[in-house]
Amino acid sequence: MKKFLALFVITLMTSLLFAKSIRVKVGGEYVDVDIPDDFAGLIEGNLPQIEEALEREGVTKDKLKEAVDEFNEVYKDLVNDFGTATPVGDVTKGLDKFSGDLADAIANAQLMQNVWAEAWLGKLVPGFHIGAGLDVGASQMKITALKDTAKALGMDGLSELPDSFAFPTVAGDVRLGGIVLPFDFGVSFMTIDSSRISKLDDVLSSIGDGMKFDFLTLGFDFRYALLQGDRGLPKISLGAGYVFTRGNLDFASDEASANLNFKKHTVYLQAQISKKLLFFIPYFGARVAYTKSEINWSAKANWDNILPGDNDFADLKSWGILPTEFAGGYQGYKIIPQVYGGFCLDFFIFNLTLGAGWDFVDRLGSAAVSVRLAW
C-alpha cells in the first residue's frame, strides 16, 4: 500500500510538472506544446520573440514538438537530481528573497555606524569639541535563500554553511559639537570589498569562482541635547539622520552566473541617554528607521552544465524556448524599530566604545567596536 501511494505521488508530481500547455504559432499555424510549468511564465512573457525566431529559422510543427518532448524527458531527470519540482522558480524566488535579506542586513549595518556613547558631544564654542575614529562592526545576515538558489542551480558549495552569518562592516566617522546651541553633527563613510575580508570572501567563494561583493555607504546625522549633563544629570538627546548605500554582488560558477545591484536609503529618528561615571560611559538608545530598498538582479544559466547527461538543446536555446537569462528584483519600504546600547571607556582624548543593536521587525542583531580620538 505504501509503495502504491509513493508511486501515485511521484506520478502525480511528474504530470503536474508538464501540465502547462502553451499555444505557439509555427509554420503558419498554431500548435499546443506541453512544457514544464516552471518555464511557463518565462516563455509566455517572450512569446512574440519566440514565434519570430521559429519563423525566421523555418521550424516545422513536428520539429518543434520533437525538440520540446526530448527536453521534457531530460527535465524530469533534472528535477529528480535537484529534489525540487521548480528549479527555475526556486532560482527566481530565491534571488528575490535574498535581495530582501540583503536589504535588511544593510539597514542594520547602516544604523550601527557613527554611534557615539555620549548622547551629546558638546559645543564648539566654548571648548571646541570634535572627534573622529574607526568603527568595526557585524550585522546578522540570513543566507538561507542564497543557499536555496545555489541548490536550484546545481551549486552545492553553500550546503554546509549555517543559515546566517555575521555581515562585517568597517566605517570611519567624524563628529563636531554644535555652535552656541546644544547640538552636534556627525558624518560617516563605509566601504566593503569582499576580497579584502577573508570570512566574507570564504562564504562567497564556497558558491563558485569569480565572487565579488562590495558597497559604499555615506551618512550624516545631528543630535539636539534636551539635557546637557549638568548638575549630575545624564545627557539626553533627540536626533535624526540619513544614510545612503549602493553596491553590487557578483558570483559565477560553471553552471551559472549572477549579478545583483542595490541601492538603499534610510532616514531615522532616535533618542539616547548617557551618563559619564569617571572614565566609564554607559548609554542606551531607541530609534525608528524608514528604509527604501531597490535591488535588481540578473542571472545566466549554462544549461549544458546544469542538465543531466550529454545534452545540448541548441535549437531550443536559439528559439528562446529554453531561456538562458533571468531577471528580477526587490523594491520595498520598511519601518524598523531598533534599540541599541553599550558603554564607552574614555581615557583623556582616547575612547573605546562597544555597542550592540536589535532589529525588532527582522529579528536581527548587530554589534560594533569603535576606536576614536575626541576632545
Q: Could you characterize the architecture of this molecule?
A:
- The protein has 375 residues and is of the alpha+beta class.
- The protein is built from nine helices and 13 strands.
- The strands form two sheets. Strands 4-5-6-7-8-9-10-11-12-13 form a ten-stranded antiparallel barrel.
- A hairpin with a 2-residue loop joins strand 1 (20-26) and strand 2.
- Helix 5 runs antiparallel to helix 6.
- The radius of gyration is 27 Å and the shape is elongated.
- The model is unreliable at 1-17 (pLDDT under 50).
Provide a short characterization of the protein structure.
This protein has 375 residues and is an alpha+beta fold.
What structural category arises from helix and sheet content? alpha+beta
Total helical segments? 9
Widest β-sheet, arrangement of strands: 4-5-6-7-8-9-10-11-12-13
Helix percentage range: 25-40%
Number of DSSP-assigned strands: 13
**Low-pLDDT regions:** 1-17
Q: Can you tell me the overall shape?
A: elongated
SSE string: HEEHHHHEEHEEHEEEEHHEEE
| Radius of gyration computed on alpha carbons | 27 Å
Percent strand equals over 45%
Oligomerization state of this entry? Answer: single chain
Distance between the termini: 80 Å
Mind summarizing the main beta sheet?
10 strands, antiparallel, barrel
Mean pLDDT: 79
